[in-house]
């Protein structure tokens, strides 16, 4: 009985995603326009045409979409609740442009038409529907207000690490399945990296002596799991990738564009370099 009482008390006290929305009268002028639209799970296909798969792959729970009006002016707020902070960050880096320089103290991307940021397991997209520059300060204030109501983002310790030396700014991407990987490089069909639920690989572009390449890194729980992932990957490569050499825990391939790739197994880690200009 005590457990049930505590559970009910927590459920009543815990804020919902809708509770996080800025209230009517925000900045003394903005009013909610209509009832908030709410999407759960696969319902997201009713809002996003052609991009829902990536959200669902990373881990999507709920979207609350609320329109705001002030006279003839409109703002549209999309508040996504993902399964964890990694999922929110993964979508953010896919959508974000260069880091913006405004009065906001947290990472974000900002233009006259849109302000985008991720915090904890939430992704926030604020749309300036008419693209009127005079509304930019109010977009920033709304973002600051909403960020203040969200938890801080913890360290993303579950993400596979990337070497910092030579990593090009803004190039990092997170991968939790085939849709995320496809945006980086096509290695093969399906779950070609053998990622388990919640496992997150990472990729980034690197500068090496004036030549760029992309590194995909994936850390597995044990060397045995990594070894099985290596065997599956090298045995199911995309037909357009031609193996041309290798050895123990190593495979070199040539892609359709005449560039090279290198797959290396090292302990419980798999590293894949693609877009190499010279044969490794």
Key words describing this protein structure:
280 residues, alpha+beta, Protein Transport Mog1p, Chain A, seven-stranded antiparallel beta sheet, six-stranded antiparallel beta sheet, 13 strands
Structural overview:
With 280 residues, this protein is an alpha+beta fold. It folds into two domains: 12-147, PknH-like extracellular domain (Protein Transport Mog1p, Chain A, 3-Layer(aba) Sandwich); 173-276, no CATH class. 21% of the residues lie in helices and 32% in strands. The chain is built from six helices and 13 strands. It has a seven-stranded antiparallel beta sheet with strand order 7-8-9-13-12-11-10. A six-stranded antiparallel beta sheet has the order 1-2-3-6-5-4, sandwiched between helices. A hairpin with a 2-residue loop joins strand 10 (242-247) and strand 11. The chain is elongated, with a radius of gyration of 22 Å. 28% of the residues are buried.
